[in-house]
């Protein structure tokens, strides 16, 4: 029978719904959707229980059936090794980057509904997708079947650079579009989706990109939103800025059903339906088939296993118990219970599990029950589904319950990534918190809500409070978490605190019904994604008010804190006990905070422990301030109001004022919480296109952008593995300086997978154990008897799969000895103490400028020996280091390497193997991001890989896991800087001396070049006189290497530190000091001799003046001042920073060939790493060859193809770095084209005289007939008089800091950059934006931490935070200053890859301005609050500490003093 709504209401206390029915969007209460008990019962029939027990699934509509599969195989591994679908990439292996995202579809047979959601394929186990359909990026569109509009728009909005992350980005957006279009929202206009702009921005909020700066990606996503204003979108290839009547028809057409989206393969539907039918009558206990039922009963284990008995999927708790305690599994340590398997993204699996038990098929673990006490949710429910349940169930609740449930759901939505929440289970999160001390947000908020859990221990069901569960001893394998119960809240829950003596308090003074306040908080390195909180908290309080006095009383309260360096979330019971029954006054709040500080005490060695304690104080203050007498005011606290209130008030401030009697006055006293600010990202680009060298100068799409968006672009790891290929992984040292006596392996399943181990002893006779660095110094390929730094490769484990090799390498037990060794040198201070320095060759030593002593004598004021520290930065290219080495005939070796320096790779491999260079061929097609990290470090990996291949005489592939890559890569140079400066009272600086200590690591690498480049960045101001004393420290850490803008980044920032310090001493605005000390052309020539160029080239003064003198800048400064005077707990800052960046152009080869059909093939020494080199070269070749025709009517652009770097094809390729490889390559190609033009011109002219007009095809055909050489090479050597030039730019950044957390929001960034005559404005815009955002990471968020042994501990996406789409500027504006023609520049162009990174210092400086405002308000120091040093990076703890860790206490003390 079909039950109506009333029938369901009558069964409310026992109603149950299966998880599968929840994956839909509707405004109806979730529990009202099932139409009959028969359907409900049918849903519980597990289609896994089929006779064949083979694994069946679909990928892009193709059927796959596997009878034998390793159950530890992930979906990503299967895709990349067993299918042709390699679009999903391995970026982190943690579910933290989004490169591996695919769309997973399930079929709900009861209603014919297809549920689709994004998943992280690197964590999804293959056996878990039985009877599911997978769609990869190739499935939504490709070059053969046609591209999807998602892919076309990504390419058209210039949203791809290296392209490694692009497939995952596209799939995240695809999932968001599919699910938005399934909602009951009104139909969107033709060509749009139902998705909103806000949803489109958040669709890729959890995906990482290191290249683009996210802005063009966001624009591509927003182009699908029905509420978008298309004219607000940035530069694209579909319309030009200023075009009238921009409309959706100009975009590639979007249709929600395009390429089969939203569908499910018919063959899988049939198999699912057949499986269910085979179980016969779903209402019977064992089905209709008596023999089958008997078999099931006699051997349930056989019935539910897969993968040759290594994967089990029980359908009941009893079956689970039977399996777990069977003879075959009982006592085995390598058995794993799984639901979503996402926990392995945080707790890495160090050994192979032999057997798996999938608990998702147990109905009891996947149901929702609602009664009059609350909602019970099965432990296997995914977090995404729990969020949906809470939101949908809250629709039928009273206002207080609804707001609380929504608040819990909102907080859960900030946990992990969307593609992790879609598969991660609620119970798994809590079990990790209980068993492994995982810093869970969910445990904290559910504990505050008064949740309970039901566990099964030895077949006995036990209900515990969540607090009791967390505090109990770690659960063993016999304990199963069944469900979580979240209670409804009522105005009087007297057991809320659970503290003896206060359970039944009802204050007699209260003449008004209780109000319920509920709030959750978290402070984490970034708002969204897998960012663990520094501290999370959740508070619930019952508040009553005396209608006469207006005083507020705390009837009951629960205060929960977690993730601060504790074993699990805890309640601050002493504080609760103190608060209950008290009138909330300033003194009470102050005493509560003092008690809290004694309670929230992080464990020893917890990073930023005092900061975490201050967060607890800040959150409690934020929660209670609105009701504290004398502090009350409107506060966006999202409270839960009185249950007796029938009216629903949407404005949260109105709710508070109405429910607890707050007034609008004294707004400056309260904390205005804008955490849920939904303001959209916006941008503006002011670009000028140069048509003089068409198609050079046009913003054409990046070459290969479409195949990047479709996943068809081939990176090194996408090259099919040759037959017999094996895989290698490094064993690396965990000690900084020690003798290596040898290593052995633990007795584990992973160790059994080892085929061979390669060590330095395997280097052949005549070979060298050295990696050739690009500048000076060498390192061993593999350490022999001595390890000199933590992270140094000791050996290579070889196995038949990369996963096996990675795990086996972790089984190594290295025998170290420190006998007769000095203590390691791990810091700059250690190096100085022991005089451990590399000698800087005279040619690399920067020249001093002027007379420092004389300049100091002229000064009115002096600052002596001030200090600032700069940290390191990891490259975080999306594609980790990788190589494929294939032995060839005659002792040759073919190496595919992801490198920026193929030539040095060839040399190192040859010398390591002791063979001639001509026996080693290195090919690099494209690189998935480099930023300098694929220079010397990539050579190391290629040499090791080739050594293993040489030893075993078979192909070897190495693809470093993210942790190993981060441990070995080293990154940017940390520095300690001391400076002394003299200056006039006017602010004019007369002398500067800088001592720079550079931590180089164990070898020189490029470190000896850094003094020169630091000086180049530092010289951007006229210091009068400048002296510089650099020391390059040799330490026992991994060698630091090139990182985008090496040296110049630090030098430019040091200059800003000095300017800010001088301004603080003189109490003059820093912009005035900057302007006063900018160069005129005369001083520019003095400081940058040989690079200053002509006077007309010096555009910096006009750029800087344009920013600082315009009224808009002054207006913004005044608005910020007004904002700061009206807001106590948030402050804003504004700063304008100029840059001068010196680059040099290097000799570069180029080769152009014209094929028989007239198509053109181009080779250059430069490597495509995402910077658009191929695109600019392609444009240049088309322009140069087109000059054969005076009117240039021949459109040759689409005929040109740039091919991979190959050391056998192009000699002296050099390296791709320094921002000038693109222009150098373009010039080499242009000159090669000119050679071809000289050969073809006479023939073309003669043919034209005979035939009139002549086409390109005819010309080439005749040239071939007449034996004209159609191949030309050129090795371009730049003119020494002009090979060095200067780049100019400036940026204004405006930020807002949260004084209670230290969080920084970048409200706006305005960049102006002199690109010369841009070769491709779209490419250069992407470089500028991407470089700036990468700089934001360096200056603000990317904290590079090592342990006491020098081993990197920020070794993954969980701990290392590059910028994400939610941390870039809310308004991001870029303007090109098109300078004049310059005959000595390559087509009058200038570099754009590295210089804009320096402009991100403006964010750091703006944050400093905001901190100054905070310090002035709270009088943070007895000295001048303006004088302080802010190191790099300025993370949340740094900013909070500078604002004051105790500002809340001091504010309350001052308020109390004022009241008295």
Automatic annotation (TrEMBL):
Residue sites binding [2Fe-2S] cluster 1 per the record: 92, 97, 100, 122
Keyword Coiled coil: no
Any coiled-coil regions, as ranges: none
Residues at which [2Fe-2S] cluster 2 binds: 162, 165, 209, 211
Gene Ontology terms: biological process: abscisic acid biosynthetic process; auxin biosynthetic process
Textual note on the cofactor: Binds 2 [2Fe-2S] clusters. Binds 1 Mo-molybdopterin (Mo-MPT) cofactor per subunit.
Statement: the UniProt record of this protein carries the keyword Metal-binding: yes
Gene3D superfamilies: 3.10.20.30, 3.30.465.10, [2Fe-2S]-binding domain, Aldehyde oxidase/xanthine dehydrogenase, a/b hammerhead, Aldehyde oxidase/xanthine dehydrogenase, molybdopterin binding domain, CO dehydrogenase flavoprotein, C-terminal domain
GO molecular function, one term: 2 iron, 2 sulfur cluster binding
Residue numbers binding FAD: 425-429, 441, 481, 522
Binding site for Mo-molybdopterin: 900, 931, 1044, 1218
Domain FAD-binding PCMH-type: 304-491
Pfam families: Ald_Xan_dh_C, CO_deh_flav_C, FAD_binding_5, Fer2, Fer2_2, MoCoBD_1, MoCoBD_2
SUPFAM superfamilies: 2Fe-2S ferredoxin-like, CO dehydrogenase flavoprotein C-terminal domain-like, CO dehydrogenase ISP C-domain like, CO dehydrogenase molybdoprotein N-domain-like, FAD-binding/transporter-associated domain-like, Molybdenum cofactor-binding domain
PANTHER family: ALDEHYDE OXIDASE 1-RELATED (PTHR11908:SF132), XANTHINE DEHYDROGENASE (PTHR11908)
Subunit: Aldehyde oxidases (AO) are homodimers and heterodimers of AO subunits.
Name assigned to this protein: Indole-3-acetaldehyde oxidase-like
Name of the encoding gene: LOC120277624
């Amino acid at each position: 029978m079909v039950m109506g709504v009333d029938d369901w209401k009558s069964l409310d206390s026992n109603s149950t719904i299966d998880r599968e029915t929840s994956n839909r969007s509707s405004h109806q209460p979730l529990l009202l959707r099932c139409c009959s008990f028969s359907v409900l019962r049918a849903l519980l029939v597990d289609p896994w229980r089929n006779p064949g027990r083979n694994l069946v699934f679909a990928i892009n509509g193709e059927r796959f059936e596997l009878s034998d599969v390793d159950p530890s195989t992930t979906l990503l591994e299967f895709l990349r090794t067993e299918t042709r679908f390699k679009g999903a990439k391995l970026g982190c292996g943690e579910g933290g980057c989004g490169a591996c995202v695919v769309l997973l579809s399930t079929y709900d047979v009861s209603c014919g509904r297809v549920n689709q959601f994004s998943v992280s394929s690197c964590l999804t186990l293959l056996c878990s997708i039985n009877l599911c359909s997978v769609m990869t990026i190739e499935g939504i569109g490709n070059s053969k079947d046609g591209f999807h509009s998602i892919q076309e728009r990504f390419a058209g909005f210039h949203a791809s650079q290296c392209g490694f992350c692009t497939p995952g980005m596209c799939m995240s957006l695809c999932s968001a579009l599919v699910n938005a279009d399934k909602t009951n929202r009104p139909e969107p206009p033709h060509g749009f989706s139902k998705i909103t702009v806000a949803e489109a921005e958040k669709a890729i909020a959890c995906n990482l990109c290191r290249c683009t700066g996210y802005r063009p990606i966001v624009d591509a996503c927003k182009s699908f939103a029905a509420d978008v204003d298309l004219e607000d979108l940035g530069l694209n290839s579909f319309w030009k800025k200023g075009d009238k009547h921009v409309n959706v028809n100009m975009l590639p057409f979007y249709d929600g059903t395009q390429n089969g989206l939203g569908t499910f393969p018919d063959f899988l539907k049939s198999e699912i339906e057949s499986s269910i039918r085979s179980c016969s009558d779903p209402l019977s206990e064992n089905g209709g088939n008596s023999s089958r039922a008997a078999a099931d009963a006699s051997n349930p284990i056989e019935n539910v296993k897969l993968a040759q008995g290594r994967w089990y999927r029980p359908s009941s708790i009893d079956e689970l118990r039977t399996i777990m305690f069977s003879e075959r599994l009982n006592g085995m340590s390598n058995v794993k219970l799984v639901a979503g398997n996402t926990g392995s993204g945080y707790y890495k699996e160090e050994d192979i599990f032999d057997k798996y038990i999938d608990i998702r098929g147990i109905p009891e673990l996947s149901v929702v029950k609602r009664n009059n006490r609350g909602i019970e949710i099965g432990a296997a429910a995914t977090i995404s589904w729990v969020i949906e349940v809470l939101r949908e169930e809250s629709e039928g609740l009273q206002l207080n319950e609804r707001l609380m449930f929504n608040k819990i759901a909102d907080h859960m939505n900030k946990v992990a990534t969307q593609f992790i929440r879609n598969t991660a289970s609620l119970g798994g999160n809590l079990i990790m918190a209980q068993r492994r001390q995982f810093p869970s947000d969910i445990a904290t908020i559910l504990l505050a809500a008064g949740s309970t859990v039901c566990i099964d221990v030895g077949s006995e069901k036990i209900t515990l409070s969540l607090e009791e569960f967390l505090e109990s001893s770690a659960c063993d394998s016999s304990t199963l978490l069944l469900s979580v119960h979240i209670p409804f809240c009522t105005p009087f829950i007297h057991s809320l605190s659970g503290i003896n003596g206060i359970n039944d308090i009802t204050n007699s003074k209260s003449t008004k019904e209780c109000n319920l306040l509920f709030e959750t908080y978290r402070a984490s390195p970034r708002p969204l994604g897998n960012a663990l909180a520094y501290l999370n908290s959740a508070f619930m309080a019952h508040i009553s008010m005396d209608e006469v006095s207006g005083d507020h009383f705390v009837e009951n309260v629960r205060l929960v804190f977690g993730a601060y360096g504790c074993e699990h979330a805890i309640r601050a019971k002493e504080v609760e006990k103190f608060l209950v029954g008290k009138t909330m006054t300033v003194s009470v709040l102050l005493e509560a905070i003092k008690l809290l500080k004694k309670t929230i005490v992080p464990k020893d060695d917890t990073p930023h422990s005092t900061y975490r304690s201050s967060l607890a104080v800040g959150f409690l203050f934020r929660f209670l301030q609105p009701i504290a007498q004398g502090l009350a005011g409107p506060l966006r606290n999202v409270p839960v109001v009185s249950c007796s209130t029938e009216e629903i008030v949407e404005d949260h401030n109105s709710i508070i004022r109405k429910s607890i009697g707050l007034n609008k006055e004294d707004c400056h006293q309260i904390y205005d919480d804008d955490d849920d600010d939904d303001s959209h990202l916006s941008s503006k680009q002011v670009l000028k296109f140069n048509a003089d060298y068409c198609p050079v100068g046009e913003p054409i799409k990046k070459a290969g952008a479409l195949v990047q968006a479709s996943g068809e672009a081939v990176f090194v790891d996408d090259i099919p593995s040759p037959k017999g290929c094996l895989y290698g992984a490094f064993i690396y040292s965990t000690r900084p300086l020690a003798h290596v006596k040898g290593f052995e392996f633990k007795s584990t399943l992973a160790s059994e997978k080892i085929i061979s181990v390669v060590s330095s002893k395997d280097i052949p006779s005549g070979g060298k154990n050295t990696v050739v660095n690009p500048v000076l110094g060498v390192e061993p390929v593999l350490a022999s008897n001595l390890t000199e730094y933590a992270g140094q490769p000791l050996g290579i484990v070889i196995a038949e799969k990369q996963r096996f090799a990675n795990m086996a390498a972790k089984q190594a037990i290295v025998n170290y000895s420190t006998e007769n060794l000095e203590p390691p040198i791990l810091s700059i201070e250690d190096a100085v103490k022991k005089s451990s320095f590399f000698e800087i060759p005279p040619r690399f030593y920067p020249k001093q400028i002027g007379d420092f002593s004389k300049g100091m004598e002229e000064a009115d004021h002096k600052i002596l020996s001030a200090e600032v520290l700069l940290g390191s930065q990891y490259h975080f290219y999306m594609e980790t280091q990788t190589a494929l080495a294939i032995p060839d005939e005659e002792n040759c070796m073919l190496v595919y390497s992801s490198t920026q320096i193929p030539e040095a790779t060839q040399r190192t491999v040859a010398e390591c193997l002791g063979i001639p260079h001509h026996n080693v061929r290195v090919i690099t097609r494209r690189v998935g991001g480099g930023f300098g990290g694929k220079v010397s470090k990539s050579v190391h990996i290629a040499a090791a890989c080739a050594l293993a291949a040489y030893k075993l005489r078979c192909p070897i592939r190495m693809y470093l896991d993210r942790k190993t890559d981060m441990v070995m890569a080293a990154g940017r140079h940390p520095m300690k800087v001391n400076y002394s400066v003299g200056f006039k009272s006017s602010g004019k600086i007369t002398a500067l001396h800088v001592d720079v200590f550079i931590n180089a690591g164990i070898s020189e690498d490029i470190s000896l070049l850094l003094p020169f480049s630091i000086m180049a960045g530092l010289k951007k101001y006229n210091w009068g006189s400048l002296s510089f004393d650099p020391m390059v420290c040799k330490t026992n850490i991994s060698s630091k290497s090139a990182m985008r803008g090496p040296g110049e980044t630090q030098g430019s920032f040091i200059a800003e530190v000095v300017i800010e310090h001088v301004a603080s001493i003189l109490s003059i605005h820093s912009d005035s000091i900057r302007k006063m000390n900018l160069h005129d052309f005369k001083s520019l020539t003095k400081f940058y001799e040989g690079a200053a160029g002509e006077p007309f080239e010096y555009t910096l003064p006009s750029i800087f003046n344009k920013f600082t003198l315009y009224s808009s800048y002054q207006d913004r400064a005044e608005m910020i001042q007004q904002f700061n005077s009206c807001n106590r707990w948030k402050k804003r800052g504004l700063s304008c920073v100029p840059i001068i960046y010196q680059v040099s152009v290097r000799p570069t080869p180029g080769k152009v060939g014209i094929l028989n059909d007239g198509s053109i093939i181009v080779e250059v020494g430069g490597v495509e790493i995402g910077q658009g080199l191929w695109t600019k070269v392609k444009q240049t070749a088309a322009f140069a060859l087109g000059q054969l025709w005076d009117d240039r009517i021949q459109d040759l652009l689409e005929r040109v193809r740039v091919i991979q770097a190959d050391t056998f094809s192009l000699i002296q390729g050099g390296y791709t770095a320094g921002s000038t490889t693109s222009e150098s390559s373009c010039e080499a190609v242009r000159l090669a084209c000119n050679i071809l033009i000289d050969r073809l011109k006479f023939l073309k002219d003669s043919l034209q005289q005979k035939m009139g007009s002549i086409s390109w095809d005819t010309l080439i055909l005749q040239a071939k007939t007449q034996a004209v050489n159609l191949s030309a090479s050129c090795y371009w050597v730049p003119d020494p008089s002009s090979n060095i030039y200067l780049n100019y730019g400036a940026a204004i950044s405006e930020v807002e800091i949260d004084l209670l957390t230290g969080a920084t929001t970048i409200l706006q960034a305005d960049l102006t950059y002199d690109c010369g005559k841009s070769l491709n404005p779209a490419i250069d815009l992407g470089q500028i934006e991407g470089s700036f955002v990468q700089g934001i990471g360096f200056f603000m968020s990317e904290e590079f931490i090592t342990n006491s042994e020098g081993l990197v501990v920020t070794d993954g996406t969980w701990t290392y935070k590059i910028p994400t789409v939610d941390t870039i500027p809310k308004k991001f504006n870029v303007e090109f200053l098109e300078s004049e023609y310059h005959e000595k520049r390559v087509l009058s162009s200038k570099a754009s890859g590295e210089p804009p990174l320096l402009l991100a210092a403006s964010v750091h400086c703006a944050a400093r301005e905001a901190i100054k405002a905070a310090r002035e308000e709270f009088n943070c120091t007895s000295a001048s609050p303006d004088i302080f040093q802010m190191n790099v990076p300025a993370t949340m703890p740094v900013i909070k500490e500078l604002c004051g860790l105790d500002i809340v206490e001091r504010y309350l003390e001052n308020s109390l003093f004022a009241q008295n």
